Amino acid sequence: MTAQPHRRPACRLRPATRDDLPGIVDIYNASVPGRLATADTQPITVADREDWFVAHQKPERPLVVAVDEHANTALLGWASFSNFYGRPAYNGTVELAVYVAPNAQGRGIARTLVQHLLDRAPDLGVHTVLGFVFSHNQPSLNLLGGLGFTPWGELPEVAILDGTSRGLTIVGRKV
User: Fold this and answer.
1) CA 73 to CA 163: how far, in whole Å?
2) Is residue 162 part of a domain?
3) Is residue 135, in this structure, part of any structural domain at all?
4) Tens digits of per-residue pLDDT, 92-111?
């Protein structure tokens, strides 16, 4: 049996605008109760993300959204590159984040968003992309592994979620 080629989902990617911020926050907040994708234990507000949004208006630290190809107002997911450590020697290393709306998961949108950023990375001066993923988040580890990320480190039991200790896996990829 041969592997099926990756099919592009019915979405269009574009840079995020200020009008997208409430939808970006909604998608992020939808991940909070699952205790799989974020260490936040309570929903955040749009105001909480204002500075973060401004930091992602720089060309070298993009914030990209996926919108439904047929209904351009329907936000399906988002992905971003963020500064890794804040010192000049690390400027070529970024942290990747990707979140997909619950009703759009399993359609290849996260893969499309991440691949888009990876393709742009060299033009942005990025040589290393890191992901910080809860060790129990097998779907995200599988996604990133399928895109060439490999485990670079493990931080055992660094988070407590609802009384349960959780580890953090650091994955990385050179581009």
Assistant:
1) 38
2) no
3) no
4) 999 999 999 999 999 999 99
